[in-house]
Amino acid sequence: MKAQTSETTQVPLSAGLAGVTAGSTAICTVGKEGVGLTYRGYSIEDLAQHSTFEEVAYLLIYGQLPNTTQLNEYKELLQTGQALSPAICSILEQIPKTAHPMDVLRTACSALGCIEPENISLGSAYSKKMASRLMPFCISALLYWYNFSGQQKKINVNTQEKTLAGHFLHLLQGKTPEPEQRRALDVSLILYAEHEFNASTFAARVCVSTETDFYSPIVAAIATLSGPLHGGANEAAYQLISQFKDPAAAEIGLREKLNNKVLIMGFGHRVYKHEDPRSPIIKEWARKLSLHKKDETLFKVAERIEQVMMEEKHLFPNLDFYSALVYHYLGIPTIFFTPLFVVSRISGWSAHIFEQRANNKLIRPLAEYTGPASRNYVALDKRT
Ligand SMILES: CC(C)(COP(=O)(O)OP(=O)(O)OC[C@H]1O[C@@H](n2cnc3c(N)ncnc32)[C@H](O)[C@@H]1OP(=O)(O)O)[C@@H](O)C(=O)NCCC(=O)NCCS
Protein backbone atom coordinates (compact mmCIF):
# COMPACT_ATOMS: atom_id res chain seq x y z
CA MET A 1 0.00 0.00 0.00
CA LYS A 2 1.30 3.44 -0.90
CA ALA A 3 1.92 5.88 1.93
CA GLN A 4 -0.69 8.64 2.00
CA THR A 5 0.58 12.19 1.91
CA SER A 6 -1.04 14.95 3.91
CA GLU A 7 -1.32 18.48 2.62
CA THR A 8 -1.77 19.80 6.16
CA THR A 9 1.21 21.58 7.73
CA GLN A 10 2.58 19.43 10.55
CA VAL A 11 3.25 21.08 13.91
CA PRO A 12 5.40 19.38 16.58
CA LEU A 13 3.50 17.05 18.89
CA SER A 14 2.81 18.31 22.43
CA ALA A 15 1.60 15.84 25.07
CA GLY A 16 -1.84 16.91 26.30
CA LEU A 17 -1.71 19.84 23.83
CA ALA A 18 0.35 21.70 26.48
CA GLY A 19 1.44 25.08 25.17
CA VAL A 20 -0.51 24.69 21.92
CA THR A 21 -2.75 27.58 20.83
CA ALA A 22 -5.83 25.70 19.60
CA GLY A 23 -8.07 28.62 18.62
CA SER A 24 -8.90 32.21 19.48
CA THR A 25 -11.33 33.69 21.99
CA ALA A 26 -12.53 37.11 23.13
CA ILE A 27 -13.95 35.76 26.39
CA CYS A 28 -11.10 35.30 28.82
CA THR A 29 -7.32 35.52 29.38
CA VAL A 30 -5.59 32.98 31.60
CA GLY A 31 -2.08 33.53 32.88
CA LYS A 32 -1.06 36.13 30.33
CA GLU A 33 2.65 36.62 31.10
CA GLY A 34 2.35 33.88 33.74
CA VAL A 35 -0.21 35.55 36.03
CA GLY A 36 -3.69 37.04 35.95
CA LEU A 37 -7.20 36.17 34.90
CA THR A 38 -9.67 38.42 33.11
CA TYR A 39 -13.26 37.88 31.92
CA ARG A 40 -13.94 40.05 28.86
CA GLY A 41 -11.23 42.45 30.00
CA TYR A 42 -12.23 42.77 33.68
CA SER A 43 -9.81 41.44 36.29
CA ILE A 44 -10.94 38.58 38.50
CA GLU A 45 -9.98 40.65 41.56
CA ASP A 46 -12.39 43.46 40.58
CA LEU A 47 -15.18 41.07 39.68
CA ALA A 48 -14.83 39.07 42.92
CA GLN A 49 -14.80 42.22 45.01
CA HIS A 50 -17.45 44.39 43.36
CA SER A 51 -19.64 42.16 41.23
CA THR A 52 -22.18 39.39 41.68
CA PHE A 53 -22.36 36.03 39.92
CA GLU A 54 -25.47 37.13 37.98
CA GLU A 55 -23.59 40.14 36.56
CA VAL A 56 -20.65 37.91 35.65
CA ALA A 57 -22.87 35.32 33.95
CA TYR A 58 -24.52 38.11 31.94
CA LEU A 59 -21.09 39.54 31.08
CA LEU A 60 -19.86 36.18 29.80
CA ILE A 61 -22.98 35.24 27.85
CA TYR A 62 -23.92 38.70 26.47
CA GLY A 63 -20.44 40.24 26.24
CA GLN A 64 -20.97 43.26 28.51
CA LEU A 65 -21.89 44.06 32.11
CA PRO A 66 -25.66 44.62 32.52
CA ASN A 67 -27.16 47.96 33.58
CA THR A 68 -29.68 47.96 36.45
CA THR A 69 -32.70 47.24 34.24
CA GLN A 70 -30.92 44.47 32.37
CA LEU A 71 -29.71 42.91 35.63
CA ASN A 72 -33.18 42.94 37.19
CA GLU A 73 -34.67 41.37 34.07
CA TYR A 74 -31.87 38.81 34.02
CA LYS A 75 -32.52 37.83 37.64
CA GLU A 76 -36.21 37.38 36.83
CA LEU A 77 -35.28 35.18 33.89
CA LEU A 78 -33.05 33.09 36.15
CA GLN A 79 -35.88 32.71 38.64
CA THR A 80 -38.11 31.23 35.93
CA GLY A 81 -35.41 28.61 35.36
CA GLN A 82 -35.90 27.19 38.88
CA ALA A 83 -38.98 25.19 37.84
CA LEU A 84 -38.79 21.49 36.97
CA SER A 85 -41.36 19.87 34.68
CA PRO A 86 -43.13 16.67 35.81
CA ALA A 87 -41.24 14.79 33.05
CA ILE A 88 -37.87 15.88 34.46
CA CYS A 89 -38.94 15.06 38.04
CA SER A 90 -39.99 11.60 36.97
CA ILE A 91 -36.58 10.98 35.33
CA LEU A 92 -34.75 12.24 38.43
CA GLU A 93 -36.84 9.92 40.59
CA GLN A 94 -35.44 6.91 38.69
CA ILE A 95 -31.80 7.75 39.53
CA PRO A 96 -30.52 5.81 42.55
CA LYS A 97 -29.13 7.40 45.71
CA THR A 98 -25.76 5.80 44.95
CA ALA A 99 -25.27 7.85 41.75
CA HIS A 100 -22.73 10.65 41.82
CA PRO A 101 -24.39 14.10 41.49
CA MET A 102 -22.16 14.84 38.48
CA ASP A 103 -23.81 11.91 36.71
CA VAL A 104 -27.20 13.18 37.85
CA LEU A 105 -26.49 16.60 36.31
CA ARG A 106 -25.18 15.06 33.10
CA THR A 107 -28.39 13.00 32.83
CA ALA A 108 -30.66 15.93 33.77
CA CYS A 109 -29.14 18.20 31.09
CA SER A 110 -29.33 15.45 28.52
CA ALA A 111 -32.98 14.78 29.41
CA LEU A 112 -33.82 18.49 29.18
CA GLY A 113 -32.34 18.47 25.67
CA CYS A 114 -34.89 15.76 24.73
CA ILE A 115 -37.88 17.28 26.51
CA GLU A 116 -37.32 20.97 25.71
CA PRO A 117 -34.90 20.81 22.74
CA GLU A 118 -33.18 23.92 21.46
CA ASN A 119 -35.00 25.50 18.56
CA ILE A 120 -32.11 27.01 16.59
CA SER A 121 -34.54 28.77 14.22
CA LEU A 122 -35.55 31.06 17.13
CA GLY A 123 -32.07 32.65 16.99
CA SER A 124 -29.26 33.30 19.42
CA ALA A 125 -31.29 35.57 21.78
CA TYR A 126 -33.52 32.59 22.54
CA SER A 127 -30.55 30.24 22.96
CA LYS A 128 -28.83 32.66 25.36
CA LYS A 129 -31.94 32.75 27.56
CA MET A 130 -32.06 28.95 27.48
CA ALA A 131 -28.39 28.78 28.49
CA SER A 132 -29.00 31.15 31.41
CA ARG A 133 -32.02 29.21 32.65
CA LEU A 134 -29.96 26.02 32.67
CA MET A 135 -28.00 27.26 35.74
CA PRO A 136 -30.97 27.45 38.17
CA PHE A 137 -32.37 24.32 36.51
CA CYS A 138 -29.24 22.39 37.51
CA ILE A 139 -29.51 23.53 41.13
CA SER A 140 -33.18 22.51 41.30
CA ALA A 141 -32.53 19.15 39.61
CA LEU A 142 -29.68 18.37 41.98
CA LEU A 143 -31.58 19.17 45.16
CA TYR A 144 -34.78 17.49 43.93
CA TRP A 145 -32.88 14.26 43.24
CA TYR A 146 -30.95 14.53 46.53
CA ASN A 147 -34.12 14.77 48.60
CA PHE A 148 -36.08 12.21 46.62
CA SER A 149 -33.35 9.57 46.46
CA GLY A 150 -32.38 10.07 50.11
CA GLN A 151 -35.75 10.48 51.82
CA GLN A 152 -38.40 9.94 49.13
CA LYS A 153 -39.29 13.64 49.57
CA LYS A 154 -40.64 15.59 46.56
CA ILE A 155 -39.47 19.10 47.47
CA ASN A 156 -40.83 22.33 46.02
CA VAL A 157 -37.83 23.65 44.07
CA ASN A 158 -39.19 27.17 43.53
CA THR A 159 -37.68 29.66 45.98
CA GLN A 160 -38.06 33.43 46.15
CA GLU A 161 -34.27 33.77 46.00
CA LYS A 162 -32.99 36.25 43.42
CA THR A 163 -29.48 34.78 43.19
CA LEU A 164 -28.15 31.36 42.29
CA ALA A 165 -26.12 31.19 45.51
CA GLY A 166 -29.27 32.00 47.51
CA HIS A 167 -31.33 29.45 45.55
CA PHE A 168 -28.81 26.67 46.18
CA LEU A 169 -28.34 27.39 49.89
CA HIS A 170 -32.08 27.85 50.44
CA LEU A 171 -32.90 24.46 48.90
CA LEU A 172 -30.04 22.80 50.81
CA GLN A 173 -30.85 24.34 54.20
CA GLY A 174 -34.63 24.57 53.79
CA LYS A 175 -34.56 28.23 54.90
CA THR A 176 -33.31 31.69 53.90
CA PRO A 177 -29.50 31.59 54.08
CA GLU A 178 -27.32 34.05 56.03
CA PRO A 179 -25.99 36.99 53.92
CA GLU A 180 -22.35 36.06 54.60
CA GLN A 181 -22.89 32.47 53.45
CA ARG A 182 -24.68 33.69 50.36
CA ARG A 183 -21.85 36.06 49.47
CA ALA A 184 -19.13 33.44 50.07
CA LEU A 185 -20.84 31.06 47.64
CA ASP A 186 -21.50 33.92 45.22
CA VAL A 187 -17.78 34.78 45.10
CA SER A 188 -16.85 31.14 44.57
CA LEU A 189 -19.29 30.98 41.62
CA ILE A 190 -17.65 34.11 40.15
CA LEU A 191 -14.22 32.48 40.42
CA TYR A 192 -15.38 29.23 38.81
CA ALA A 193 -17.31 30.85 35.94
CA GLU A 194 -14.76 30.83 33.13
CA HIS A 195 -11.22 29.68 32.33
CA GLU A 196 -10.46 29.82 28.60
CA PHE A 197 -9.57 26.52 26.83
CA ASN A 198 -9.59 24.21 29.86
CA ALA A 199 -10.46 20.55 29.20
CA SER A 200 -14.25 20.78 29.65
CA THR A 201 -14.59 24.00 27.63
CA PHE A 202 -12.46 22.55 24.88
CA ALA A 203 -14.64 19.40 24.88
CA ALA A 204 -17.70 21.66 24.52
CA ARG A 205 -16.14 23.54 21.61
CA VAL A 206 -15.13 20.31 19.84
CA CYS A 207 -18.67 19.00 20.24
CA VAL A 208 -20.49 22.13 19.04
CA SER A 209 -18.04 22.53 16.15
CA THR A 210 -19.87 19.61 14.50
CA GLU A 211 -23.01 21.83 14.52
CA THR A 212 -24.87 20.07 17.34
CA ASP A 213 -27.67 21.50 19.48
CA PHE A 214 -26.79 23.48 22.64
CA TYR A 215 -27.30 20.65 25.15
CA SER A 216 -24.82 18.20 23.59
CA PRO A 217 -21.69 20.29 24.32
CA ILE A 218 -22.97 20.96 27.85
CA VAL A 219 -23.30 17.22 28.45
CA ALA A 220 -19.81 16.63 27.00
CA ALA A 221 -18.42 19.39 29.22
CA ILE A 222 -20.03 18.02 32.41
CA ALA A 223 -18.60 14.58 31.62
CA THR A 224 -15.15 16.06 31.07
CA LEU A 225 -15.26 18.19 34.20
CA SER A 226 -16.02 15.24 36.46
CA GLY A 227 -12.49 13.76 36.58
CA PRO A 228 -10.14 14.50 39.52
CA LEU A 229 -7.55 16.19 37.30
CA HIS A 230 -10.18 18.84 36.46
CA GLY A 231 -13.35 19.73 38.42
CA GLY A 232 -13.26 16.67 40.64
CA ALA A 233 -10.16 18.09 42.35
CA ASN A 234 -12.20 20.15 44.86
CA GLU A 235 -13.80 17.00 46.28
CA ALA A 236 -10.45 15.24 46.40
CA ALA A 237 -8.83 18.29 48.08
CA TYR A 238 -11.39 18.15 50.90
CA GLN A 239 -10.74 14.45 51.38
CA LEU A 240 -7.04 15.26 51.69
CA ILE A 241 -7.42 18.16 54.15
CA SER A 242 -10.02 16.47 56.33
CA GLN A 243 -7.91 13.35 56.94
CA PHE A 244 -5.51 15.28 59.22
CA LYS A 245 -6.39 16.16 62.81
CA ASP A 246 -3.92 19.06 63.12
CA PRO A 247 -1.15 20.89 61.20
CA ALA A 248 1.65 18.68 62.63
CA ALA A 249 -0.11 15.51 61.44
CA ALA A 250 -0.67 17.18 58.07
CA GLU A 251 3.02 17.95 57.67
CA ILE A 252 4.08 14.35 58.44
CA GLY A 253 1.32 12.88 56.28
CA LEU A 254 2.04 15.15 53.36
CA ARG A 255 5.77 14.50 53.31
CA GLU A 256 4.99 10.78 53.34
CA LYS A 257 2.62 11.16 50.38
CA LEU A 258 5.19 13.17 48.44
CA ASN A 259 7.85 10.53 49.13
CA ASN A 260 5.44 7.99 47.70
CA LYS A 261 4.90 10.21 44.62
CA VAL A 262 1.21 10.73 45.39
CA LEU A 263 -0.47 13.51 43.36
CA ILE A 264 -1.73 16.16 45.77
CA MET A 265 -5.15 17.35 44.66
CA GLY A 266 -5.77 21.09 44.51
CA PHE A 267 -2.15 21.93 43.61
CA GLY A 268 -0.47 22.81 40.34
CA HIS A 269 -1.83 24.13 37.09
CA ARG A 270 -1.21 23.60 33.40
CA VAL A 271 -1.08 27.32 32.55
CA TYR A 272 -0.29 29.32 35.70
CA LYS A 273 3.36 29.09 36.64
CA HIS A 274 3.66 31.12 39.88
CA GLU A 275 0.18 31.47 41.35
CA ASP A 276 -3.48 30.82 40.60
CA PRO A 277 -4.91 34.37 40.98
CA ARG A 278 -8.21 32.94 42.20
CA SER A 279 -6.60 31.15 45.13
CA PRO A 280 -5.80 34.13 47.43
CA ILE A 281 -9.39 35.39 46.98
CA ILE A 282 -11.02 32.12 47.97
CA LYS A 283 -8.43 31.52 50.71
CA GLU A 284 -9.49 34.79 52.36
CA TRP A 285 -13.08 33.59 52.36
CA ALA A 286 -12.03 30.26 53.88
CA ARG A 287 -10.16 32.18 56.62
CA LYS A 288 -13.14 34.46 57.26
CA LEU A 289 -15.63 31.58 57.51
CA SER A 290 -13.31 29.55 59.76
CA LEU A 291 -13.09 32.51 62.18
CA HIS A 292 -16.84 33.07 62.21
CA LYS A 293 -17.43 29.36 62.76
CA LYS A 294 -14.78 29.36 65.51
CA ASP A 295 -13.38 26.27 63.83
CA GLU A 296 -9.93 27.06 62.49
CA THR A 297 -8.36 23.60 62.65
CA LEU A 298 -8.95 22.59 59.05
CA PHE A 299 -7.91 26.03 57.82
CA LYS A 300 -4.61 25.68 59.68
CA VAL A 301 -4.17 22.14 58.33
CA ALA A 302 -4.70 23.52 54.81
CA GLU A 303 -2.17 26.30 55.35
CA ARG A 304 0.43 23.77 56.52
CA ILE A 305 -0.21 21.62 53.43
CA GLU A 306 0.26 24.75 51.29
CA GLN A 307 3.56 25.52 53.06
CA VAL A 308 4.93 21.97 52.62
CA MET A 309 3.91 21.90 48.94
CA MET A 310 5.78 25.14 48.33
CA GLU A 311 8.90 23.95 50.23
CA GLU A 312 9.00 20.50 48.66
CA LYS A 313 7.58 20.95 45.16
CA HIS A 314 7.37 24.72 44.52
CA LEU A 315 3.70 24.14 43.76
CA PHE A 316 0.94 26.58 44.69
CA PRO A 317 -2.72 25.87 45.51
CA ASN A 318 -5.19 26.20 42.66
CA LEU A 319 -8.80 27.41 43.06
CA ASP A 320 -10.01 23.95 44.09
CA PHE A 321 -7.92 23.71 47.25
CA TYR A 322 -9.41 26.47 49.42
CA SER A 323 -12.80 26.26 47.64
CA ALA A 324 -13.13 22.85 49.24
CA LEU A 325 -12.78 24.48 52.68
CA VAL A 326 -15.22 27.28 51.88
CA TYR A 327 -17.82 24.70 50.85
CA HIS A 328 -17.10 22.69 53.99
CA TYR A 329 -17.63 25.75 56.23
CA LEU A 330 -20.89 26.47 54.35
CA GLY A 331 -22.11 22.99 55.33
CA ILE A 332 -22.25 21.79 51.72
CA PRO A 333 -21.96 17.99 51.33
CA THR A 334 -18.72 17.04 49.55
CA ILE A 335 -20.56 15.34 46.69
CA PHE A 336 -21.96 18.77 45.68
CA PHE A 337 -18.56 20.47 45.33
CA THR A 338 -18.00 19.63 41.65
CA PRO A 339 -21.70 20.08 40.70
CA LEU A 340 -21.46 23.69 41.99
CA PHE A 341 -18.53 24.14 39.60
CA VAL A 342 -20.91 22.97 36.82
CA VAL A 343 -23.62 25.47 37.80
CA SER A 344 -21.15 28.33 37.56
CA ARG A 345 -19.14 27.13 34.53
CA ILE A 346 -22.32 26.77 32.42
CA SER A 347 -21.94 30.54 31.96
CA GLY A 348 -18.40 30.15 30.54
CA TRP A 349 -19.22 27.05 28.51
CA SER A 350 -22.24 28.82 27.00
CA ALA A 351 -20.14 31.85 26.06
CA HIS A 352 -17.70 29.52 24.27
CA ILE A 353 -20.48 27.57 22.55
CA PHE A 354 -21.92 30.81 21.13
CA GLU A 355 -18.47 32.10 20.19
CA GLN A 356 -17.63 28.84 18.39
CA ARG A 357 -20.95 28.93 16.52
CA ALA A 358 -20.42 32.53 15.44
CA ASN A 359 -17.23 31.66 13.55
CA ASN A 360 -17.33 27.90 13.26
CA LYS A 361 -14.68 25.59 11.85
CA LEU A 362 -14.84 21.86 12.59
CA ILE A 363 -12.19 21.04 15.23
CA ARG A 364 -10.28 18.07 13.89
CA PRO A 365 -6.55 17.88 14.70
CA LEU A 366 -4.01 15.25 13.57
CA ALA A 367 -2.42 12.36 15.45
CA GLU A 368 1.11 11.02 15.31
CA TYR A 369 0.76 7.35 14.37
CA THR A 370 2.62 4.90 16.65
CA GLY A 371 0.97 1.60 15.55
CA PRO A 372 2.36 -1.27 13.45
CA ALA A 373 3.76 -0.70 9.96
CA SER A 374 1.55 -1.52 7.00
CA ARG A 375 0.95 -5.33 6.79
CA ASN A 376 -1.08 -7.94 4.90
CA TYR A 377 -4.53 -8.93 6.10
CA VAL A 378 -4.62 -12.47 7.63
CA ALA A 379 -7.74 -14.55 6.93
CA LEU A 380 -9.62 -15.73 10.03
CA ASP A 381 -8.74 -19.45 9.56
CA LYS A 382 -5.02 -18.62 9.19
CA ARG A 383 -4.68 -16.70 12.47
CA THR A 384 -2.88 -18.43 15.35
C1 LIG B 1 -3.35 20.41 37.11
C2 LIG B 1 -2.36 19.38 36.59
C3 LIG B 1 -3.17 18.26 35.91
C4 LIG B 1 -1.42 20.04 35.61
O1 LIG B 1 -0.67 19.03 35.09
P1 LIG B 1 0.48 19.20 34.01
O2 LIG B 1 0.55 20.54 33.45
O3 LIG B 1 0.28 18.06 33.06
O4 LIG B 1 1.78 19.03 34.89
P2 LIG B 1 2.53 17.68 35.13
O5 LIG B 1 1.56 16.61 35.51
O6 LIG B 1 3.38 17.42 33.93
O7 LIG B 1 3.42 18.06 36.38
C5 LIG B 1 4.77 18.52 36.32
C6 LIG B 1 5.50 17.99 37.55
O8 LIG B 1 4.88 18.51 38.75
C7 LIG B 1 4.39 17.43 39.54
N1 LIG B 1 3.06 17.81 40.00
C8 LIG B 1 2.16 18.58 39.34
N2 LIG B 1 1.06 18.71 40.08
C9 LIG B 1 1.28 18.02 41.22
C10 LIG B 1 0.51 17.78 42.35
N3 LIG B 1 -0.72 18.30 42.45
N4 LIG B 1 1.01 17.03 43.35
C11 LIG B 1 2.27 16.51 43.25
N5 LIG B 1 3.05 16.70 42.18
C12 LIG B 1 2.55 17.44 41.18
C13 LIG B 1 4.26 16.26 38.58
O9 LIG B 1 4.33 15.02 39.26
C14 LIG B 1 5.44 16.48 37.67
O10 LIG B 1 6.61 16.06 38.34
P3 LIG B 1 7.78 15.31 37.54
O11 LIG B 1 8.24 16.32 36.52
O12 LIG B 1 8.76 14.99 38.60
O13 LIG B 1 7.12 14.11 36.92
C15 LIG B 1 -1.55 18.79 37.77
O14 LIG B 1 -0.86 19.82 38.43
C16 LIG B 1 -2.41 18.00 38.71
O15 LIG B 1 -2.70 16.82 38.45
N6 LIG B 1 -2.86 18.61 39.84
C17 LIG B 1 -3.72 17.94 40.77
C18 LIG B 1 -5.16 17.94 40.28
C19 LIG B 1 -5.79 19.29 40.36
O16 LIG B 1 -5.67 19.99 41.36
N7 LIG B 1 -6.54 19.65 39.31
C20 LIG B 1 -7.24 20.92 39.23
C21 LIG B 1 -6.56 21.82 38.27
S1 LIG B 1 -7.25 23.46 38.33
How would you sum up this structure, described in words?
This protein is mainly alpha-helical. The chain has a three-stranded antiparallel beta sheet with strand order 1-2-3. The radius of gyration is 22 Å and the shape is globular. Strand 1 and strand 2 form a beta hairpin. The chain has helices spanning 44-50, 53-62, 68-80, 86-93, 101-115, 124-151, 164-173, 179-192, 199-208, 215-225, 233-241, 247-259, 279-292, 297-313, 319-329, 337-358, and strands spanning 28-30, 37-39, 42-43. Helix 5 (101-115) packs antiparallel against helix 10 and helix 8 (179-192) packs antiparallel against helix 15 (319-329). The chain contains 16 helices and three strands. It starts with 27 loop residues before the first strand and ends in a 26-residue tail after the last helix. The chain has a domain at 233-329: Cytochrome P450-Terp, domain 2 (Cytochrome p450-Terp, domain 2, Orthogonal Bundle), CATH 1.10.230. The structure holds coenzyme A.
